[in-house]
Amino acid sequence: MISFIVRRLGQLLLLLLGISFIVFMSMHIAPGDPATIIGGPTATESDLEAIRKDLGLNEPLLVQYVDYLKGIVQGNFGYSYQNSQPVGEAIATRLPNTIKLAVASMIVAVIIGLIAGMISAMKQNSWLDVTSTTFALVGVSIPNFWLGAMLILLFAVNLQWLPVNGLSEPFYSVEGLKQLILPSITLGTASAALIARMSRSSMLEVIKSDYIRTAKAKGVKRKSVIWVHALRNALIPVITVIGINFGALLGGTIITEQVFAINGIGRLMIDAISARDFPMVQGTVLLVAAIFVIINLIVDIIYVKVDPRISYE
């Protein structure tokens, strides 16, 4: 297991190196000049040249990239072109909101998805199965921005039950939990639908296995067959979906954060791209990529705990 983790961490470093190169080159090759944005409409050509020299933008791209990597090794991700704030400090300020939203959304997705999928599998071809399947189809099809707007219109504007003012309150407070409800439902609906479909198909496959028929023939209670024997083996593909979706949620909070005015990594990334803020874009993309790969590593480790037949030795 330790050697496996070490190998995966080595792959993580190589992957992040490749991502950093692609993002760095993409931002610098794309049309537009950050010096013009920083200097404003009144800046003269000499002012723009001074800005480029100060930021190192007049150096060859490879030289700029090597300097950027040296800074990362030293824990320095650069400074924002917009407000001269350290990139690491800006990310540390916004990251908690994104993590809260992603975790709350995944909790909603897992609870709804697992319950719907298991009930659908145990009541195959019933009206519950049809309802669950329809929910999964609708959940995958509805865009986040539309669902978020409809939830705001219904629960915040018309009924005035829930607030829509970002995530300004601590999540453990009543007001903080209320602030999380609408955005977490908005972001978690699509993941819940995917989990429901996967858990249903996985459970149906496991239920038809020989060892399940043997357990039933030996007189094992139905609840024990489902929740003890079948569920654990059915969870393997479901865990994969949960892990991938959780990583995607961290990178996919952009639209939801915009709709609900949440100051998270998604909004920070959008603002940085609009302002051609190279260091901020590179820092946020690297963060999301690193979290995504680490989550996949954690999922692989969980496999061994859930199914003893899996080994990485």
Automatic annotation (TrEMBL):
- Signal peptide boundaries: none
InterPro entries recorded for this chain? BPD_transp_1_N, MetI-like, MetI-like_sf, Opp2B
| TM regions (residue ranges) | 12-30, 101-122, 134-157, 177-196, 234-260, 280-304
Alphabetic keyword roster: Cell membrane, Ion transport, Membrane, Nickel, Nickel transport, Transmembrane, Transmembrane helix, Transport
Q: Where is the ABC transmembrane type-1 domain?
A: 95-303
Q: Which domain of life is it from?
A: Bacteria
Coiled-coil regions in this chain?
none
Compartments where found: Cell membrane
Q: How does it sit in the membrane?
A: Multi-pass membrane protein
Quaternary assembly? The complex is composed of two ATP-binding proteins (NikD and NikE), two transmembrane proteins (NikB and NikC) and a solute-binding protein (NikA).
Q: Which family does it belong to?
A: Belongs to the binding-protein-dependent transport system permease family. OppBC subfamily.
Q: What is this protein called?
A: Nickel import system permease protein NikB
Which species? Ornithinibacillus salinisoli
Write the gene name: nikB
